[in-house]
UniProtKB/TrEMBL annotation:
It holds the Pfam family Beta-lactamase2. It comes from Cryptosporangium phraense. GO terms for biological process: beta-lactam antibiotic catabolic process. Gene3D superfamilies: DD-peptidase/beta-lactamase superfamily. InterPro entries: Beta-lactam/transpept-like, Beta-lactam_cat. Keywords: Hydrolase, Signal. Residues 1-24 form the signal peptide. GO terms for molecular function: beta-lactamase activity. SUPFAM superfamilies: beta-lactamase/transpeptidase-like. Residues 179-301 form the Beta-lactamase class A catalytic domain. Residues 28-69 are annotated as: Disordered. This is Serine hydrolase.
Amino acid sequence: MRRTTVVAALLVGAVLFGSVVTGCQDDAGARPGSRPAVASAPVVPDGSVGPSGPAVPETTGPAQDSERSAWLGRRLRRIVDAQRFDDVVNAKTGAPPPAVPNVDAAVIELDDAGRPVAAANTLLSQDYPHGVAVPVSQNWSAPGVDWTHWSNDVWAAHGRTDPLIPARASKPLEFMAPYPASVFKLMVAFGIGRLADRGGVRFDETYDYRPRKATCPGGRQPGTHEVSWWLDAMLTYSDNGATCALLMLLHERGGVTPTNAELRDLGLTTLQIRGTDGADGGGWSFEGLTMTALDTARLLLLFTDAPGILWRTPTGEPVTTRTLSRSSRHTIRGRLAEQGLNQALSTANWCGQSYPAPGIPQRVPSRWIDTSTGIVSVAGRVWSGDVRGCAGDAQVEFDHKTGLVESAGADAGIVTALPGRRPRHYVVAVFSNLGCRYADHVGAHGGVCRYTEKLATLGAAIDRLMIEARSR
């Protein structure tokens, strides 16, 4: 199969254009025509998938309710398809997208103790315009997918790119994984946690960030803060300077290569941080920063206190939450619980407004709400409307991380029902190439870079699905 190599390019601004961060770009081409029939992938034993040839074996993981996962997979595919993600327009010109957007959505259902019991993964693309339900292995992975690098130009041209992981055999499904945007900061947090557990850094240690270059998005911004401050800024309001500081720290203390190796050894093979610059922590690129929804959902499990074996590595070793110390787990998850950018799968920062549509019905952390006006304000970003009246309507805590650039919109986190609310407990992750280049209509959000509300309606539908799943 002919593949077009994706050229890695540095991100040097605030939003992505092509493979780099620059200004806006108009899309070429017309909206795809009629949508073909639903694609499907045949299931073979032991959780692998393949239309022909030998199955891809996987070491047996924890007990999974395969019937429940299959049901969840069918329902998730229908939900993703129902959002009509191709019904968006170029935010500036009103032109339709040149191809069906790429969406990678995954959910892992958890029991009351936080143990995974079922999972689903759906892919939407021009190859699967109605979505395809990806069979999930006993280890909560998707071994039947050939994941490839993202390229805006190749997506628009209906082409193909190089694989994230060289495959030893052909796989029944192929999917160009969207750029993860700032959700990649979950991997940086994991790396800092592992470095702390090895004694390479302390969360209360002061780190003096002195970049020697200016490749970090936002430029050269030196500063001196405790590592916990840098981590909070990176995770709660997605500060790029804080992320570059922590990446530079990882480079200085030999933590980047071990982080990539540990993720790979855990079986989270699509999660990688490559090509970043040790001189300032910048150098972010499509080629170097890769994630997929199901692997990201599993990474989030490592930030919980779930008991027992979560899954097994490719070599059969058990993976538990003890991969990180209790201190590191709680430090990271505590920051995710304080998320300020509730504007993708959840739109709680706009609670009570007519637009955008409501998403996962989360509680907005009080630190971001002005006590006199009820308006949400996060690091200089202000949302309209008084959210205090919505506090009683909140149903869940959503410990999550969002990501938004011009050509990518993503959100991933852990959902837990609030006391007295209908029970549900799950991990959700969604990646898409629907960044702020594409909007629900021209002029949406006053032209400010925001997400399509289709991610919110997807989040709300997934939340309803998980309530239904719990009652089965």
